[in-house]
Amino acid sequence: MWCLKVSFPSNEGMLVASRAKRHNIAMMAFPLSNYTKKNKFYLTCAGYIVGDSKNKKEFVKDLKKDSRTQNIEQMDENFYLFLMEQHPSAAIFYDPLIISIKPFYISKTGEQTFELASWDKNKLMNIAKLIQTKLYKGKVEWMKQLKIKNVFIKTALPELTDKQREAFELAVRNGYYGYPRKTSLVKLSKIMKLSYSTYEFHLRNAEKKLMPYLYSIN
Fold first, then answer.
1. How far is it, in rounded angstroms, from Cα 112 to Cα 128?
2. Residue range 133-179, pLDDT digits in tens
3. What's the predicted TM-score (pTM) here?
4. How many alpha carbons fall within 13 Å on the CB side of residue 51?
5. Considering only CA atoms, which of 161, 189, 192, 193 is closest in space to residue 76?
6. What DSSP letter does each residue of 70-97 carry, written as one string?
7. What torsion do the CA atoms of 13, 14, 16, 17 make, to the nearest 10 degrees?
8. Rounded CA gap, 125 and 4, in Å?
9. Which residues contact 210 (CB under 8 A, 6 or more apart)?
10. CB contact at 8 A, 189 and 199
11. d(Cα 36, Cα 204) in Å, to the nearest integer?
12. Is 2 helix (H, G, I), strand (E, B) or coil?
């Protein structure tokens, strides 16, 4: 199967990415369905938001103010369902002959990363060309034939306890998963006001639940 990885920066016209950058949050998007009505393209997706609690609330509040946002339903503190009007050109990403092999990722800088696959090479070539136009100003990371070993399943992320979620998000926000690491478990446990062993217990259990979904998006 032909596979394509593309990335492109945010601009003010992008409904979600521009607000991710504005409010310093990151999001994994799981596209669920789409339709066209009166020449307008609409997308339903689930989004898992990572960031400071206040920033996440401001991000969602900001989205609700935009007329392109049709509906938002909160599933839990970090997981939402969105129905949004997208730029008509976005329909090309959701062609029935194209599959998403990983969740779409939006970073805190607003950069978006998509990994797509299709048996029809031309479908991916069309996306590669679009990404490099002035509209997206993006780039093709790679395009090649691969034997796909895994794809994401359109389902909600596993439920975490409050402590597991807090421990994991604290680690993400403070650069624990960066290279080189910007913090340590000792420092994180102090921020969360827990003993080292208790903090590590919550974090490792969160990782055990989340890593099958998260390990390959960075």
1. 14
2. 999 999 999 999 998 877 766 555 567 788 888 888 888 888 888 77
3. 0.75
4. 25
5. 161
6. EEEEESSSSEEEEEEEE-GGGGGGG-TT
7. -110
8. 9
9. 157, 158, 160, 168
10. yes
11. 43
12. strand
210 beta partners: none
Tell whether the torsion through CA atoms of 146, 107, 100 and 118 is positive or negative: negative
Which residue has 């790679």 as its token pair? Answer: 142
- Single-letter residue type at 186: V
How many CA within 13 A on the CB side of residue 154? Answer: 10
Tell me, what DSSP letter sits at residue 11? -
Q: Which element (helix H / strand E) includes 69?
A: strand 69-74
Element (DSSP H or E) covering residue 129? helix 121-131
- Which residues sit opposite 72 in a β-bridge? 82
Tokens, residue 103: 């969740």
Over residues 126-135, the pLDDT tens digits come to 999 999 999 9
The residue type found at 141 is E
- Give dist(CA 202, CA 161) in Å, integer: 9
Q: How far is CA 121 from the centre of its chain?
A: 25
For the chain, which residues make up each domain, given as ranges?
A: 2-145, 162-214
